[in-house]
Amino acid sequence: MACSASRGIGLELTKQLLASADAVVFATCRSPQSATSLLALGDSVSTNGTLHVVRMDVTDEIFIVSAKDEVAGILQGRGLDYLVNNAGVAPQDDRTTTLNTNDLLSTFLSNVAGPALVMKTFIPLIEQGDRQVIANVSSALASIGTDFGREHTSYSISKYGLNMLTYKLAKERPDLTPFLVDPGWVKTDMGGSNAVLEAHESVAGIIQVVKNVTAKDAGQFIDYTGQKVPW
Fold this sequence. Notes:
Elements: H1 8-17, E1 24-29, H2 36-40, E2 50-55, H3 61-75, E3 82-85, H4 101-127, E4 133-137, H5 153-172, E5 177-182, H6 199-212, E6 221-223
Parallel strand pairs: 1-2, 3-4, 4-5, 5-6
Helix pairs in contact: 1-6, 3-4, 4-5
């Protein structure tokens, strides 16, 4: 299942996954009726897999539970092999001394509380899957060791929170494989036109990383090339 799949990395992830005839992809977004690019994948000549578009707002627990029930109904007793928590927001670049508290709180809601609720709600379906992998999309901006300096304070703090959340789940549930993936700096609405990676490049790497993780990677921070990211 790919969260926030109406654009950017989530949309490209859905597109590439659907190239496989064996793939059954649940792609979530806030407003399926207006997600024209996502819906178009269902009729694309490059699509060989099966697409289910599901309405879900990661900031609203009612919508998350409703989405889980819809997915469970389609699966009919089967499980989810992979959950990719890609939803997130990035406020304008801010600094520690100038950040807006409302921006910080709303960023935490989307980037930390949202993934936490999604994981908690969908774990029963992940438990029934063959792979039991949860990939939480983080950022190198959340890495203290990478030392990106003072930029994007609210976003960086929120993604560091996501990192700790993932680590905690890995320790609590050693039977699952939750980990963090850094997609790199990607040319999306969030990443901007100055980014160094095209979405298809990042996503191709992410898919390989997600498919190849094992239990020993639980709680780890890995970039789209398969390299460990320093905490």
